[in-house]
Design a protein that fits this description.
single chain; TIM Barrel; Lyase, Ornithine Decarboxylase, Chain A, domain 1; eight-stranded parallel beta sheet; five-stranded antiparallel beta sheet; binds pyridoxal-5'-phosphate; PLP-binding_barrel; pyridoxal phosphate binding
Length: 369
Amino acid sequence: MPKAQETVLEIDLKALKHNFEHLKSRITNNTKFMAVVKAFAYGNDACEIACYLQNLPVDYFAVAFVHEGVKLRKAGITKPILVLHPQAANFNILIENCLEPNLYNTKILNEFITIASAEKLTDYPIHIKFNTGLNRLGFSENDVNTIAFRVKETSAVKIKSVFSHLAASEDLNERDFTISQIETFKKITEAIATQIGYKPLLHICNTSGILNYPEGHFDMVRSGIGLYGFGNSEKENKNFKPIGTLKTIISQIHDIEKGQSVGYNRAFKTDAFLRTATLPIGHADGIGRQYGKGKGYVIINKQRAYILGNVCMDMIMVDVTNIDCKEGDEVIVFDSNTTAEKLAETANTISYELITAISQRVKRSFVEN
Ligand SMILES: *Cc1c(COP(=O)(O)O)cnc(C)c1O
């Protein structure tokens, strides 16, 4: 691998393939696979990731918002794309780009049917989401009759899938709750299939649902974080390879005398001699201020160098007093050993937040190792 000469997020497509194949090995051949590539494919570049996955047996893609789906279409993605959280203001763009909306309440269902009818569409694929306990988005069980009535009286739309989302699939202490969500989902989907007279695809599992609840796989599963290399538990992490390596370099080394301070607000003051390295990566690149003041660290020459004082917009200063290094040396922020999950833990957050926060100004480079 070439040594970094600037801040770069290196993305390993071989690792992506490995993760995909592992996830596929955990489902049956009859279960479809939806690759969740919202939020720039969790910071990894959705177009590149989806273009690579499109040549593998992926059945569906999912994004959160309409403009994310438009970008995929422009990049040449032809497989179906579910928009998990569309807004009615974008329905015309959604239709022009053959994107498929998640409709989660009566208001948005009616709004979509109105537009689809005006456009004289027939059997336009829609997806109906039920709330089974997350209490975020979704119809309630009581809405089954209304949905069936609205969908049966129009030829503009057809329910392609019915789905729900688990609240705590990674937490085995919440097993009973998750099982009850799966049971509620079964009950609701049986009722709706009876009323509309056909069987839409059913899906409820995200990555941890796939790994922990085979009884919840139904017709399709949806995976995001697993594809990017995290299994949300020590045991499952062993089966995955984080696809992203965030690297940077040492711009400058300073010798700091006793009594001096480092960075804004003099947030770090030293009572002994100290050597620091300044790195060209800051909160505008996705390393938030919560990683500062000795919480987060980077790896230089295989050793941990802790962040000193406040994280700046474009820089951090790290402690290299006991590390053999020089200006221009490579620095690892996270990789497959010192993972984004471990770094995220130092700031009491999760891998999802750290990797999706890596900003667009950080160069992405794709490798197949
Ligand atoms: C983001 C999201 C997923 C993917 O979850 P992972 O834990 O990353 O696999 C699946 N389903 C829905 C509805 C989502 O919003």
